[in-house]
Fold this sequence. Notes:
Elements: E1 4-9, E2 12-18, E3 23-26, H1 27-31, H2 40-48, H3 51-64, H4 70-79, H5 89-96, E4 101-104, E5 110-114, H6 115-125, H7 127-174, H8 192-200, H9 205-211, H10 213-216, H11 227-245, H12 250-280
Antiparallel strand pairs: 1-2, 2-3, 3-5, 4-5
Amino acid sequence: MAKNRAITVQGIPVTVSYEDIDDFICITDIAAAKSDNSRAADVIRNWLRNRSTLEFLSTWEEIYNPNFRVFESEHFKKEAGLVTFTPSVSEWVEKTNAVGLYVKRGKYGGTFAHKDIAFEFASAISPVFKLYLIKEFQRLKEAENDLQKLEWDAKRFLSKNNYLIQTDAVKNYLIPVCNYRKDLQWLPYAEEADLLNVALFGFTAKAWRGANPELAKKSNVRDYATINELTVLSNLESHNAQMIREGMDKKDRFEALKEIAEYQLRVLNEAEKINNRIEEQ
């Protein structure tokens, strides 16, 4: 899947970028709905200095980012509304260790926000624009899902003849040499996405990139997942969100997620083998 895609919302091109944890949308492009590109940074800065914005960003980070610095975020909230308070996105990210926003430099750069935050930003720009943004974003995801389904069907057909070659390549090339499920030194510093990666695949995204530098230039570990693994991954995301709400600590959540992943993947793989045998008869 291409990392950068573009959608057109009320005549305005908006960039969508896929990162390790989810889709991010360029809010610099969205700001163009309210002003020209030269003033987009001012629009974003004014939005960021609003207390309700900071409350939203802080809550989102506390839910999804275990490394978020809550104490530093309180400083921003106290300054909100003051004439002298003109924070930048870079300052917010640097001081709070936020992951929901980031700034990309260069000709095709801009400020990108996780889709949840981008939709909230669009509300501040124009409720109507937000509705069209959601509509076009959903259209993009539906098109990608259709494409992925075709790719999965093709992979399943080919795997019947190439199963041994494929599994040998994965074993010897794609998987980093380290047992992350037993050696938990990485755990205190892991983001939620890697909690799921290790529970399901057995290694972190960083470890995979280190083992596969060429592949990592244009793809990530989840691009090489089977349809069964992606199904389990979706379920793990739901289970993890519920455990976060229940206040479970990271180690207990990891152990639970690992158990769920092993069980569900075993069930799906066994069912697939049975279906393949039936089809071949």
